[in-house]
């Protein structure tokens, strides 16, 4: 079975904690987490793409379709058995419409939402 690839910033404590918690629920091992830093070592990324990955979670499904930010979170939930129902709810159009700005707010303010161990300003976009 092919896995979905989740790209995240390994210098961001909130991103690291998200990866840790989601991995606990990925019982079927359907997600492959790859840090921006690992990706840079393996592939030439444009500076724009690096910045996008620092700003929002990115996921590539087995069909190579890209899911970004809120949509990546929704997809991840649907891949985890215990979170599947939440993923379905997050995908409801009205919930998605409200959820996207909430995701952006958290992503843009992740250094203020309970994560106080950011180093070198890595959490301040």
TrEMBL record:
Q: Cite the InterPro entries for this sequence.
A: DCC1-like
Gene Ontology MF term list = protein-disulfide reductase activity
Q: Tell me what this protein is called.
A: Predicted thiol-disulfide oxidoreductase YuxK, DCC family
Query: Where does this protein come from, organism-wise?
Result: Salimicrobium halophilum
């Amino acid at each position: 079975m092919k896995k979905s690839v989740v790209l995240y910033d390994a210098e961001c404590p909130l991103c690291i904690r998200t990866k840790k918690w989601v991995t606990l629920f990925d019982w079927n091992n359907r997600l492959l987490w790859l840090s921006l830093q690992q990706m840079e070592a393996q592939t030439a990324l444009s500076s724009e793409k690096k910045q996008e990955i620092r700003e929002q979670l990115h996921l590539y499904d087995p069909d190579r379709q890209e899911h970004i930010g809120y949509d990546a979170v929704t997809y991840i939930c649907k891949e985890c058995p215990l979170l599947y129902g939440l993923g379905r709810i997050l995908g409801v159009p009205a919930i998605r419409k409200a959820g996207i700005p909430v995701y952006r707010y958290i992503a843009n303010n992740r250094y203020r939402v309970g994560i106080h161990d950011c180093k070198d300003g890595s959490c301040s976009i």
